[in-house]
């Protein structure tokens, strides 16, 4: 059984009853198709002895709830936490500590990389979840019993899986591997919009020349700022394809905008002059202030051989830790690392496993040899 909480008095009463909880399962339902920021529609909570659906559309002040989850001594358990934490940050301007993400834990244990909640539930508990409500409109009220039962399932089974995963992590000695990944989730800066940096995520950015990136940065920043201000999807203002075409076609006057496929006349009338000024602003920058994409080295025959050796290390570590090599690093990820001139794989658990040994090999501190048909790695 679970509670449906839709008023401040009921929320206060519930929080008083769970004030001493050592851990809590958390999930959210939201919609985002027509907005820049996700619209929170439901919060699901489970402690060791309680389950509740909290209605944020009916409760105006959620600050008592946020104060509760900020308690450092209480572990907050999510599955694929990033989007849930993004919502928490936008509504409360803070990120709770003591986070545990079951999706990351599953990867560390070799159960599957980027594993969805339903698949993890089936694998660990043998339960097949009903997915019929996955595309429901969570903003409509009243919510049906079927919707609420579907939603509470996202924390009910999470409560069952958390002790199982925790025990496996402790028995395998891998709990410490998660420290960097969980600390990264607690970094509030990653949930803040970044208008000046969003040009890097524009689809097609690699098609542009360095000099063209100056205009793209200004236009993409304007789009992001407008999307935030109006709370609209950025693609509703300008699609990535249109941004790239404006820059590649070297639009220099209002008439030139008419040649850009996907631009409406009213958009040109309303914003054309501003766009031109942004393009000119970017183009006026001195070369030393041009934005740059990560530099890549061409993966020649020698670097390809180095990638082969690094993959030997990946496979060795995977075998020793009983994890699929693909969960640690794929060939393309290793090649990308080399092409960008890095000697570290990542800053998460995979990096904890591979960064030091990769750096040692690339710096000539490792010797590989064969002894009795067994690979030996000496440092």
TrEMBL record:
- PROSITE patterns, per database record: HRDC
What's the protein name? Ribonuclease D
Q: Name one GO molecular function term.
A: nucleotide binding
Give the location in the cell: Cytoplasm
Q: Which family does it belong to?
A: Belongs to the RNase D family.
State the organism named in the record.
uncultured Thiotrichaceae bacterium
Q: State the EC number(s).
A: 3.1.13.5
Q: Which GO terms describe its biological process?
A: tRNA 3'-end processing
Co-factor(s): a divalent metal cation
Q: Which GO terms describe its cellular component?
A: cytoplasm
Matching entries from Pfam families are given as: DNA_pol_A_exo1, HRDC
Entry-linked CDD domains: RNaseD_exo (cd06142)
Tell me which residues make up the HRDC domain.
Answer: 209-289
Q: Name the keywords, alphabetized.
A: Cytoplasm, Exonuclease, Hydrolase, Nuclease, tRNA processing
């Amino acid at each position: 059984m679970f509670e449906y909480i839709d008023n401040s008095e009921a929320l206060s009463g519930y929080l008083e009853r769970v004030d001493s909880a050592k851990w809590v399962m958390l999930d959210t339902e939201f919609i985002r198709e027509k907005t820049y920021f996700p619209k929170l529609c439901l919060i699901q909570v489970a402690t060791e002895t309680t389950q509740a659906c909290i209605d944020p559309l009916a409760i105006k002040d959620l600050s008592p709830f946020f104060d509760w989850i900020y308690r450092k001594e209480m572990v907050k358990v999510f599955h694929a936490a990033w989007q849930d934490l993004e919502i928490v940050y936008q509504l409360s301007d803070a990120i709770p500590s003591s986070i545990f993400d079951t999706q990351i834990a599953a990867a560390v244990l070799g159960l599957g990389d980027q594993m969805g909640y339903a698949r993890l539930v089936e694998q660990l508990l043998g339960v097949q979840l009903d997915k019929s409500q996955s595309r429901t409109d969570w903003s409509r009220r009243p919510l049906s019993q079927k919707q609420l039962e579907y939603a509470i399932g996202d924390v009910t089974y999470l409560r069952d899986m958390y002790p199982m995963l925790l025990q496996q992590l402790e028995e395998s000695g891998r709990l410490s591997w998660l420290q960097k990944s969980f600390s990264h989730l607690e970094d509030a800066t990653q949930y803040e919009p970044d208008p000046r940096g969003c040009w890097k995520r524009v689809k097609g950015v690699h098609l542009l020349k360095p000099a063209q990136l100056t205009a793209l940065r200004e236009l993409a920043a304007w789009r992001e700022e407008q999307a935030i201000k109006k709370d609209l999807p950025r693609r509703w203002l300008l699609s990535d394809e249109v941004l790239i075409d404006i820059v590649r076609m070297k639009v220099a006057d209002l008439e030139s905008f008419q040649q850009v496929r996907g631009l409406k006349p009213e958009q040109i009338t309303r914003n054309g002059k501003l766009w031109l000024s942004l393009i000119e602003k970017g183009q006026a920058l001195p070369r030393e202030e041009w934005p740059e994409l990560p530099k890549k080295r061409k993966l020649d025959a020698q670097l390809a051989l180095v990638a082969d050796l690094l993959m030997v290390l990946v496979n060795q570590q995977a075998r020793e830790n009983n994890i699929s090599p693909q969960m640690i690093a794929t060939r393309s990820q290793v090649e990308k690392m080399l092409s960008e001139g890095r000697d570290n794989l990542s800053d998460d658990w995979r990096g904890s496993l591979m960064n030091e040994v990769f750096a040692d090999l690339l710096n000539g501190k490792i010797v590989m040899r064969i002894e009795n048909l067994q690979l030996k790695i000496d440092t």
